[in-house]
Write a structure and sequence with these properties.
CATH architecture of chain A: 2-Layer Sandwich
Radius of gyration of chain B: 20 Å
CATH superfamily of chain B: Formate dehydrogenase/DMSO reductase domain
Low-confidence stretches of chain A: none
Helix content of chain B: 55-70%
Largest sheet of chain A: 3 strands, mixed
Largest interface: A-B, 50 and 41 residues
Strand content of chain A: 15-25%
Oligomer: heterodimer
Strand order of the largest sheet of chain B: 1-2
Mean pLDDT of chain A: 94
Helix content of chain A: 10-25%
Number of domains of chain B: 1
Structural class of chain A: alpha+beta
Number of strands of chain B: 2
CATH class of chain A: Alpha Beta
Radius of gyration of chain A: 17 Å
Number of helices of chain B: 9
CATH topology of chain A: Alpha-Beta Plaits
CATH topology of chain B: Formate dehydrogenase/DMSO reductase fold
Order of helices and strands of chain A: EHEEHEEHEHEHHEHE
Strand order of the largest sheet of chain A: 8-1-9
Structural class of chain B: mainly alpha
Distance between the termini of chain B: 27 Å
CATH architecture of chain B: Up-down Bundle
Shape of chain A: globular
Chain lengths: 200, 291
């Protein structure tokens, strides 16, 4: 059985946030909510100061703590490792947000619509969630099920993201993980994320 | 909803999802269960009714905190993995069996002392203890927020809940029907409980001071940072040390009779400290930096 994952090359990322916008366009996420985003930090001192970038999204962990703490079963993991939320079951308790150390989840509050009162035709076609629930990156499952890569991967201008099957030793993600000593974020938390990073 | 700038920065980040409704539930839920438990010890049905009412009030606040409160019943679906789900069962059991337990004392249903009555009492006691501690288990297994990731929280919440339950009982004592309460005995019990709270809270801080980056930052906020005055002045001094010292000096040493006004002041101080403690525990929850 496949286990979908992603490798992100931090040496290649230029922090352009094309992935952030592609994700918003793909999923029509509400105002202030980003399923994918690029974090940044200033390191070093003048004149050697520089910014480093860290693209983040749901890690689709092998041991998802969000699934464990969810009191309703709204958070679940598919056989291919993609962790999803059934928005019709979520009660908005946000326990998953408190339990996840990676911070990819967002709570859709009632003031989150770009156009209060009604959703645009585009939002209606793209959104499968409602107000009062927790939401997050779904690895573009609607695209993956059609054999396509997630929107953040295909839009990346520096091609720093690679998506594929971590269980297939011939896949590019598996080779990158093996050859470039890719590492997940916060491995000490024991959640076995499916998103890996190479470079620094 | 506007995105906050620190959402896009790498660093220690505060939890912002649980606010005053959850904090108030932690306080009222624990205090209600603690009050119910002590009501069984002193055999006072009206105090038990008050305890159940306080728990129900706290649960209503928790209900209001949900994004989709009309779906609350779904929270009963995962008791094998989720402490929140287990908590729903504990609250339900305590309210139902607690009501059955106090019913004879209020003049309803069966006589106390029957086999059925013993079963009801045992279940209601177990449920009350579980309501007092399960919120600690909601926080402690989380790897995300190191300051919460401590096995001491269920114990701390148990002792604080008992402390707060007795304080509410002291405050309500003039208005409760039934036999008058022995305030001196209750106040003496509070000395031990406040001392236990003090030791447990300080132990937690000691353990966390050598933990992950975010936990050390939580400790800094509580002792030298933004929340220092509230924690040291409110939780430790006003909420525990001052009541301990006054209670010890007046009740223990001199064997004096408790003056109601005196116990009320001590109870209010301890309740203030208990609420502040739960407020600060939630507010200083910080996530470790990703890099």
């Amino acid at each position: 059985m496949a286990r979908y994952g992603m490798v992100i090359d931090l040496n290649t990322c230029i922090g352009c946030n094309a992935c952030t916008m592609a994700c918003k366009a793909e999923h029509a996420t509400p105002k202030g909510i980003f399923w994918a985003k690029v974090l940044e930090k200033e390191v070093g001192k003048f004149p050697a100061a520089r910014r480093i970038f860290l693209p983040v999204l749901c890690n689709h962990c092998k041991n998802p703590i969000c699934q464990e703490v969810c009191p309703t079963g709204a958070t679940y993991k598919r056989q291919d490792g993609i962790v999803l939320i059934d928005y019709d079951m979520c009660i908005g308790c946000r326990s998953c947000m408190e339990a996840c150390p990676y911070g990819p989840r967002a709570f859709y509050e009632s003031d989150g619509a770009y156009y209060p009162g009604e959703r645009t035709a585009y939002e209606k076609s793209q959104q499968d969630f409602s107000e009062g629930v927790v939401m997050k990156c779904n690895f573009c499952v609607e695209r993956v099920d059609q054999g396509l890569d997630p929107a953040c991967v295909v839009t990346c201008v520096t091609e720093c993201r690679v998506f594929g099957d971590l269980e297939d030793p011939q896949s590019e993600v598996s080779r990158l993980v093996a050859d470039k000593k890719a590492r997940p974020l916060l491995p000490e938390k024991g959640l076995e994320p499916s998103v890996f990073y190479v470079g620094s | 909803m506007a995105a906050r700038i620190d959402e896009f920065l790498i660093g220690v980040k505060p939890q912002r999802e649980w606010g005053w409704l959850v904090i108030s539930y932690l306080f009222l839920g624990g205090a209600g269960a603690g009050l119910f438990l002590i009501s069984l010890y002193i055999d006072h049905a009206w105090a038990g009714l008050l305890g159940i009412s306080v728990l129900v009030l706290g649960t209503l606040l928790l209900f209001l905190d949900l994004g989709r409160p009309e779906r609350f019943w779904r929270a009963f679906f995962r008791p094998w993995s989720s402490w929140i789900s287990r908590g729903c069962f504990f609250i339900t059991l305590m309210v139902l069996f607690g009501a059955l337990q106090i019913a004879p004392g209020l003049g309803f249903l069966w006589e106390n002392g029957s086999a059925l009555g013993s079963v009801i009492k045992a279940v209601s006691v177990a449920a009350a203890v579980l309501v007092m501690i399960y919120t600690g288990f909601v926080l402690s297994p989380s790897p995300a927020i190191p300051f919460w990731n401590s096995a001491l929280f269920p114990v701390i919440f148990f002792v604080y809940s008992l402390l707060a339950g007795i304080d509410i009982l002291i405050l309500a004592s003039p208005f409760l029907p039934g036999a008058p309460l022995d305030l001196v005995s209750l106040e003496r019990l509070q000395i031990y409980l406040a001392l236990a709270c003090l030791l447990l809270v300080l132990s937690h801080l000691s353990v966390m001071s050598s933990s992950a980056v975010a936990a050390r930052e939580s400790i800094r906020l509580l002792t030298r940072g933004r929340w220092g005055l509230l924690f040291l002045g409110g939780v430790i001094v006003a909420g525990l040390v001052v009541p301990l010292a006054l209670s010890w000096a007046v009740l223990w040493k001199s064997q004096a009779q408790a003056v109601f006004a005196f116990t009320v002041i001590l109870a209010l101080l301890r309740l203030f400290g208990d609420y502040l403690f739960r407020f600060l525990v939630i507010r200083v929850g910080l996530y470790d930096p990703l890099l």
